[in-house]
Specification:
The chain is α+β, with helices and mostly antiparallel strands and 263 residues long. It has three domains: 64 residues, no CATH class; 96 residues, Barwin-like endoglucanases, CATH 2.40.40.10; 73 residues, Sporulation related repeat (Alpha-Beta Plaits, 2-Layer Sandwich), CATH 3.30.70.1070. Helices cover 33% and strands 27% of the residues. The strands form two sheets. The chain has a six-stranded mixed barrel with strand order 1-5-2-4-3-6. Strands 8-9-7-10 form a four-stranded antiparallel β-sheet. Helix 2 packs across helix 4. The longest helix has 18 residues. It is globular, with a radius of gyration of 27 Å. 25% of the residues are buried.
Length: 263
């Protein structure tokens, strides 16, 4: 069973369980008892209604408990309903089997995606602005780190939108849910450069130190080789991180991208 099927089953099952309240069960039992053969109007008024009500309440609670379906838990500030529009790309064979930001192995045949800032585990509906086709994906990785792009879809997600040939597409994404345990989300950083030469990364880090002394170099292994990423800042709000990126561009002519650090 896929994660999407599990969510649909959970939603439907939860709906049916909670739709039977204690009041509704009480009404059914009361009607049933009053409809028994030989029950007159007088005896009907004398029946112990409090006992029926008590039994109804216990039964409703038992049904909910026995369903075994926990209610979804969202941490403070979870962006349910968040909408974003922009360019989506996709990543496939060269990354297949690599470790993603949430610790999973990337499977290009699953409906997943990478986003720079959304909490890992977010469920998003992605709609192609050019064709109207939709796909539901789970955010399990970070990226894309190219400016002007908002989402990196898996091969399966790109196939669902019909964008593997063009490589990119204008999309709208909307966060509709969350799958995973509730946890605090990481802080935000600004990535200002990515180099194949470590010395170039060190040189850039020295340039940005006067503005942001808490910078670092992150080493990542990509299909095209090892990369040294220069990242600065620790921000709690996207507005702060975006302001820092704009400041770095105006001061040092650096084009930074904001992402969430989950380490």
């Amino acid at each position: 069973m896929s994660w999407l099927e599990a969510i649909v089953i959970q939603t439907r099952t939860t709906f049916h369980v909670v739709s039977f309240s204690a009041v509704e069960i009480y009404a059914v039992l009361n009607w049933f008892s009053s409809s028994l053969p030989g029950r007159s109007n007088k005896s009907q008024s004398d029946q112990p209604r409090w006992l029926i009500l008590l039994f109804s309440t216990v039964l409703a609670g038992t049904l909910t408990t026995c369903s075994g379906i926990p209610k979804p838990t969202y941490f403070p500030g979870y962006p349910i309903g968040f909408i974003e529009r922009g360019v989506a790309s996709w990543y496939g064979p060269g990354f297949h089997g690599n470790k993603t930001a949430n610790g999973e192995r990337y499977d290009m045949h699953q409906l997943t995606a990478a986003h720079r800032t959304l909490p890992l585990g977010s469920i998003a509906v992605v709609r192609s602005m050019s064709t109207g086709r939709k796909v539901t994906v789970r955010i399990n990785d970070r990226g894309p780190f190219a400016r002007g792009r908002v989402l990196d879809l898996s091969l399966a997600g790109a196939n669902a939108l019909g964008m593997t040939g063009s490589g990119t597409d204008e999309v709208e994404l909307q966060v509709v849910g969350y799958q995973g345990r509730a946890a605090e989300i990481g802080f935000l950083r600004v990535q200002v450069g990515s180099f194949s030469d470590q010395q170039n990364a060190l040189n850039l880090l020295e340039r940005v130190k006067p503005l942001y002394p808490g910078g670092r170099i992150q080493i990542v292994d990509l299909p095209e080789g090892r990369r040294y990423r220069v990242q600065v800042g620790q921000f709690s709000k996207e507005s702060q991180a975006e302001a820092a990126a704009a400041h770095l561009e105006s001061t040092l002519d650096l084009q930074g991208v904001v992402f969430r650090d989950d380490s």
